[in-house]
């Protein structure tokens, strides 16, 4: 693993500004979270739209134009097995991989004894999805439900009401959701809320208690337990570790020009 970072409004160039021309030295995976910029890849102008996954091989000529925000990882392949694969330059509809990118980034920032295996597991999962071509058929109602959850995390979200809105029985909705997303609706809601909490811990100075409420947790103790279970440390420790990493990022990540 060479680098793992997140491009946000705080560390991205101004709108229409270039990131600069460069040539990829290693393999790169970049998942666009939001934006309306573009990335020129070997002379092809490709819009940087949400849920688009860019796959880059060493030697690719690149230039990005803001605004877009993303998860961005860089890794080497000493086995050279990836050279044998016909990898596309990008794939759409890969937003379900955001948790894998987040896991990689977290373990890169503060590694533990299992981090190497966690990172490799997530990279394999992403590459497996790339080789499948993002071709899994997902019900439009389930896709809409997942988008609704992500945009209403501060609200009360019950599986029963989500199922009713999607037009399915609760059991059928749960089965369809798990097949499409990889976890139950309740698990997805918790994970999205914790992911939002992580972003707020990183990007704001709000208190942990206020962030819990902003993410839909009325019970602070439950938020605290859930955060620690998913992230492996307390919200306070997470904020401290991430900010320490950001302050020293120039020493630990590949310079992006």
Features of this protein?
single chain, 257 residues, alpha+beta, globular, disordered C terminus
Quick take:
By secondary structure, the protein is of the alpha+beta class.
Residue-averaged pLDDT: 87
- Beta strands, count: 9
| Main sheet strand line-up | 1-8-3-6-9
Unreliable segments of 5+ consecutive residues:
252-257
What is the count of helical runs? Answer: 10
Principal-axis shape equals globular
Helical content band: 40-55%
Query: Whole-number radius of gyration?
Result: 19 Å
Order of helices and strands: EEEEEEEEEHHHHHHHHHH
Quote the distance from N terminus to C terminus: 19 Å
- SS-based structural class? alpha+beta
Structural features, described:
By secondary structure, the protein is α+β, with helices and mostly antiparallel strands. It contains 10 helices and 9 strands. 46% of the residues lie in helices and 18% in strands. A 5-stranded antiparallel sheet has the order 1-8-3-6-9, with helices on one face. The longest helix has 19 residues, at 185-203. The two termini are 19 Å apart.
């Amino acid at each position: 693993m060479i680098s793992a970072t997140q491009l946000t409004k705080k560390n991205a160039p101004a709108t229409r500004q270039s990131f600069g021309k460069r040539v990829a030295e290693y393999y790169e995976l970049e998942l666009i979270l939001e934006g309306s910029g573009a990335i020129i890849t070997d002379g092809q102008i490709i819009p940087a739209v949400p849920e688009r996954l860019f796959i880059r091989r060493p030697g690719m000529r690149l230039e990005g134009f803001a605004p877009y925000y993303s998860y961005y990882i860089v890794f080497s392949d000493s086995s050279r097995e990836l050279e044998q694969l016909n990898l596309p330059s990008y794939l759409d509809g890969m937003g379900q991989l955001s948790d894998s990118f987040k896991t990689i980034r977290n373990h890169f920032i503060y590694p533990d004894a299992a981090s190497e295996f966690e990172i490799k597991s997530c990279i394999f999962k992403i590459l497996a999805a790339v080789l499948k071509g993002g071709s899994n058929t997902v019900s439009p109602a389930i896709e809409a439900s997942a988008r609704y959850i992500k945009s209403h995390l501060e609200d009360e979200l019950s599986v029963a009401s989500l199922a009713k809105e999607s037009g399915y029985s609760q059991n059928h909705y749960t089965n369809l959701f798990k097949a499409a997303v990889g976890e139950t609706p309740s698990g997805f809601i918790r994970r999205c809320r914790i992911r939002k909490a992580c972003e707020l811990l990183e990007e704001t100075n709000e208190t942990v208690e206020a962030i819990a409420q902003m993410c839909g947790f009325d019970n602070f103790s439950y938020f605290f337990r859930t955060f620690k279970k998913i992230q492996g440390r307390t919200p306070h420790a997470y904020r401290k570790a991430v900010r320490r990493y950001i302050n020293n990022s120039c020493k630990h990540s590949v310079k992006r020009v």
